[in-house]
Write a structure and sequence with these properties.
The structure holds two protein chains of two kinds. Chain A is an all-beta fold. Helices cover 0% and strands 55% of the residues of chain A. In chain A, a hairpin with a 4-residue loop joins strand 8 and strand 9. Chain B is an alpha+beta fold. In chain B, strand 7 and strand 8 form a beta hairpin. The chains are: A mainly beta, B alpha+beta.
Chain lengths: 106, 156
């Protein structure tokens, strides 16, 4: 999948279960890889915390290392959602960068 | 606030001030997570990482965690798509551990009250070896391991 948006988030309910899929554009550098042109170490830059809320409750929060692959993919499922409920995802990386995105349950 | 969440987080707290703020209920869960558990993520062996993340306690083997993996190659090295699904009730967290990596703890997912025992994500794996999944539920640890063979993915 070509990932142009910084965060792609989808939430779909079926049989009472809300399935959330997320794709985040992020380098997820561990800090141990060399730039092939300059031969210098690429500094660590990776998402450390991800939080997903829906209708005022935290449905999933994640703690990540640089071992989560580049342009992270995340899928999870929760009960108790309904069509139209907001689902909001936010992340913070080790350099203090952050971003968030919101969708509604389809 | 939920006491199980506190147990999970106790090991990630680094300062007395944060501890105090948590004890007095000043922080909402979202804030508490600001204490990323550095000791757990920096640990160079899987058992130390687990202890720092989830506390003492030996995970028990279970057949109630299903683990599916597929491998692929990227510019930064081999990657493994991981799908964890489990019927264990009242799950607090699901941790992914890759002992062959220099820093074995890859990720930990904390699940809300109505959240299903299901996680799909993609992680880096430096060599053929085990992928370990540890589920914490009702203060008990459950674990499953699976060997992931990278020899067929054009890696290395």
């Amino acid at each position: 999948m070509i990932n142009e948006e910084p965060i792609i988030i989808r939430a779909r309910i079926n049989g009472g279960i809300t399935k959330v899929t997320v794709l985040i554009k992020h380098p997820m550098e561990r800090g141990d890889r060399k730039d092939i042109e300059t031969n210098e170490l690429i500094p660590a830059q990776f998402i450390q915390e991800v939080t997903c809320e829906s209708a005022g409750r935290v449905v999933m929060s994640a703690l990540w290392s640089g071992n989560v692959a580049k342009d992270p993919y995340l899928g999870f499922r929760f009960d108790g959602g309904k069509k139209g409920d907001p689902v909001k995802l936010s992340w913070v990386d080790n350099l203090g960068n952050s971003d968030s995105a919101e969708t509604t349950i389809q | 606030m939920d006491t199980r969440r506190r147990t999970f987080l106790t090991h990630s707290l680094t300062t007395g001030a944060v501890m105090l703020a948590v004890a007095s209920g000043l922080l909402i869960p979202r804030r508490i997570l600001a204490a990323w558990p550095k000791e757990a993520f920096d640990a160079s062996d899987a058992s130390t990482a687990l202890k720092m993340l989830l506390g003492e306690g030996q995970p028990e083997a279970t057949k109630n965690i299903l683990l599916k993996t597929t491998t692929s190659m990227s510019v930064s090295g081999p990657e493994v798509t991981v799908v964890v699904s489990t019927s264990i009730p009242e799950i607090d967290s699901i941790a992914l551990i890759v002992p062959v990596n220099q820093k074995p703890l890859a990720a930990a997912f904390q699940l809300g009250a109505g959240t299903r025992g299901f996680i799909k994500t993609r992680i880096k794996m430096d060599a053929t070896g085990d992928l370990q999944v540890v589920v914490k539920a009702k203060d008990r640890l459950y674990s499953v391991s699976q060997n992931v063979d990278l020899s067929g993915c054009g890696c290395s």
